[in-house]
């Protein structure tokens, strides 16, 4: 199939490359002309403006938006709505609030443009490992883009699902990221406790590697924890400052609206706030994990 990608950062760029390597024709746009030229040199079709998708892609066109959530996503989708035609499809693959996705979908529907919200997990490893995609929207819209979803997934039969109607994809991704907060917090606290037990002089990289094999707590997050500890066992190069990108807050807010208790996720979110006020190995571990799986920025000591 033919597909346009808007936003050639680390995630969007890796998705464009995986689609291209999977045999799809990719038209690539980024505000940075150097980024566009770079992807053009790899066999994709760079476009200098959003309206160029009308020429580069055959109708019905599919354009996937991979820009930061919030205002950048809002303005990009609004600009695409001005140039695309009825029957075309916009996919939002960023970490948007599901309520915003529902609103955008209804607004686009009124103009005859289809919309799909796709929660995407895989971070900087998605090019090699594949992406997990939680997709929401009308069945006909999802079907139009399904060849791309199956190419981006770890396999043609796993790692992609149409989870429900408009907004469901970003809702499931929101909960996914809330769970991620809790898992990361548990690992960080456990390793901090082991590090504090000076009597045993535990080798934390050794323990992380040990738990990766046969343990009930093994996971990809633990794999990345082991990698971070191998690189810097004391995490001495990091500041214990952990960002939150929004999804954890939205998950906790949703729990209040629905009166569903989420004590672990709520406390994990609060712990991130506290990381900005004190120094601890556990918070350095959280920062290191975010950097490992998503390439998220960390604060490094001078």
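^ Assign residues to that structure.
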């Amino acid at each position: 199939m033919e597909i346009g990608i808007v936003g050639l950062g680390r995630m969007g760029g890796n998705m464009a490359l995986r689609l291209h390597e999977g045999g799809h024709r990719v038209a690539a746009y980024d505000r940075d002309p150097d980024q566009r030229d770079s992807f053009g040199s790899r066999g994709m079709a760079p476009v200098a403006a959003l309206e160029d998708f009308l020429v580069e892609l055959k109708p019905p066109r599919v354009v996937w938006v991979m820009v930061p959530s919030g205002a950048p996503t809002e303005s990009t989708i609004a600009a695409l709505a001005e140039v695309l035609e009825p029957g075309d499809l916009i996919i939002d693959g960023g970490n948007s609030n599901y309520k915003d996705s529902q609103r955008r979908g209804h607004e686009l529907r009124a103009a005859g443009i289809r919309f799909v919200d796709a929660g995407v997990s895989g971070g900087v490893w998605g090019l090699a490992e594949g992406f997990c995609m939680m997709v929401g929207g009308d069945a006909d819209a999802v079907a139009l883009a399904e060849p791309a979803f199956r190419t981006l997934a770890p396999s043609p039969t796993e790692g992609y699902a149409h989870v429900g109607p408009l907004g469901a994809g970003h809702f499931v991704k929101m909960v996914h990221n809330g769970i991620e907060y809790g898992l990361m917090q548990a690992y960080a606290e456990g390793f901090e406790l082991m590090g504090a037990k000076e009597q045993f002089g535990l080798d934390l990289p050794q323990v992380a590697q040990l738990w990766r094999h046969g343990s009930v707590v093994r996971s990809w997050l633990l794999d990345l924890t082991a990698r971070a500890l191998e690189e810097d066992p004391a995490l001495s190069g990091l500041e214990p400052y952990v960002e939150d990108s929004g999804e954890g807050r939205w998950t906790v807010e949703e729990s209040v609206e629905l009166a569903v208790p989420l004590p672990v996720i709520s406390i994990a979110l609060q712990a991130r706030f506290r990381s900005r006020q004190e120094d601890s190995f556990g918070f350095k571990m959280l920062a290191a994990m975010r950097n490992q799986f998503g390439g998220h920025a960390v604060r490094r000591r001078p």
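The first helix runs from residue 10 to 21.
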